[in-house]
What we know:
Elements: H1 2-34, H2 40-67, H3 71-77, H4 79-90, H5 94-111, H6 117-140, H7 151-162, H8 175-240, H9 253-258
Helix pairs in contact: 1-2, 1-5, 1-6, 2-4, 2-5, 4-5, 5-6, 6-7, 6-8
GO molecular function, one term: voltage-gated potassium channel activity
Protein name: Potassium channel family protein
InterPro entries: K_chnl_dom, VG_K_chnl, Volt_channel_dom_sf
Amino acid sequence: MKDESAQARWELHTQRPLLALAVAFALAYAVPIVDSDASRSLTLTCTVVEWAVWGSFAADYLVRLVLARQRRDFVRTHWLDLCAVILPILQPLRLLRLVSTLMLVGRRARMASQIRLTTYVGGAVIGLLMFGSLAVLSVERDSPNGNIKTLGDAVWWSFTTMTTVGYGDHAPTTGLGRMLAVGLMLSGIALLGVVTANIAAWFISRFDKDDVEERRQTAAIEALTEEVRALRAEVAALSGGAPPGVSLPVPGATEEHSR
């Protein structure tokens, strides 16, 4: 329990700093792509920031592994985190650093109980749209046959691809660009399914809540009716001497009958 509490405290205390580092990574990744004429020193600085952010997430994974009570279980249940840590080491490409950092940020964000599902989905949509646009622009801008040359074209292509509309006016021509298109399409379908399921679950929970409240009110009315009947029987027994449960003649009805 001590190791688990230490791991939980570490995850709680590092949640916001890691998210801040993720924002720094986003800026460092975007600047050289948006500003194609950036100086060599600025590009080098952005690259260092990207590797530093990835290194921070990798160190976070190692610390959580050390603090885990059952390390084998931790590795088995957090295998996606391990893949994200190893991925850039195998091939130092900027795109792999992007993918691995997004994976690590997503895994840590889902650990935070204060982040609601709707907020997480909205952040995932914005993040995928932004990084997808930047990534496809970086690999397609210098392609001889490519038609995604500006950031506006890339954002439009990412939006139509994530929503699975696909107008076809802009399309990737390189292998990496097509891989990004596949990833965005699958991500868009998955996020649309999550949103649909969330809305359906909300309606079902509302209906269930209304049914439970209606059943509770019906049961309360029935119980109150039984109490009123019992009370009337006791009052009748005390006033007329009849035993409880025996109905007494209604005054007025007897007089009319005698007439």
